[in-house]
Design a protein that fits this description.
By secondary structure, the protein is low in regular secondary structure. The chain is built from two helices and two strands; from the N terminus they run αββα. Strands 1-2 form a two-stranded antiparallel sheet. It starts with about 45 loop residues before the first helix and ends in a 6-residue tail after the last helix.
């Protein structure tokens, strides 16, 4: 059994066009379709790679003792 993942648009007529990978021609195959609606292009799914470097403009400041105590002042009342 082989599997592959594709992202295709279903037409207004409900027809899904599916191209089979190269090498599978002129033979009978059994196909199972599992579908999942895709989020709109305006809110794509994020992966860890997409989040890499987002804090580059807001670094964690360290001193000899570790994390700078000034960071604690910003959290006053945050966990009450």
């Amino acid at each position: 059994m082989e599997s592959f993942k594709v992202r295709q648009q279903v037409g207004k007529d409900g027809v899904l066009h599916l191209d089979i990978p190269v090498g599978i021609t002129d033979r009978e195959v059994e196909v199972m379709v599992i579908y999942q609606p895709v989020l709109s292009d305006h809110s794509p799914e994020m992966s860890l790679a997409d989040l890499y470097g987002i804090c580059a403009d807001d670094p964690i400041n360290l001193n000899e003792g570790g994390i700078d105590d000034a960071l604690d002042e910003d959290l006053a009342g945050a966990f009450e």
